[in-house]
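pls read this stuff:
=====
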Amino acid sequence: MSEVFAVYGAAGCGRSLMPVAVEQLKILGNTSQIVFIDDALTHDTSVNGYVAMNYDRFKSLESSNKFVLVAIANGNIRQQLVEKVQHDDIALWTVQGSTTLIMDSVIIGAGSALSPFVTIASNVTIGKCFHANLYSYVEHDCIIGDYVTFAPRVSCNGNIHIHDYAYIGAGAVIKQGTPDKPLIIGNGAIVGMGAVVTKDVPAGVVVVGNPARPLNK
């Protein structure tokens, strides 16, 4: 066996990304084995017709090259698993749907997951292990950090800077910034489902509503 590929996480995120990963290999003409990794397992099982195993079992597979997509929605947990995989000299795998559109002058870090119907517009820079769920888009001149997560249908308009670990909820809309004053979503901030963000969100703050305001504790 020369290569083996894995989706790390067999919950909803991983199960949604597995067909995308399988399609990508098929398009490339790669017939390598692909499995789920689930640390809760004590023995191999089947999830949606694919073999699922724990991480130690995956490491023991005989293969010259292993590739892993960490499919965990929480950016902090995603980072922990990515660091474990990289410590074991296993390559991060970037997966994107066949309907994903990536325009000119785009940089995307390793280990990213771009679901079907995602659009990344021109002159965008994205860090490692970015997750963009169904029908989300990133418009021109945006900068996105590491371990950022978009739920489905996120509208990230032009000249927006999103810092590491931010989570943007389903259907959220982020107002366009300007070249001299980009709109900023701070480190670890959370934008609630359906929120309309019209101004900067400080690091670690949860915002909800239209217009988006900090969530009262």
About this structure: The chain has two domains: 3-93, 96-210.
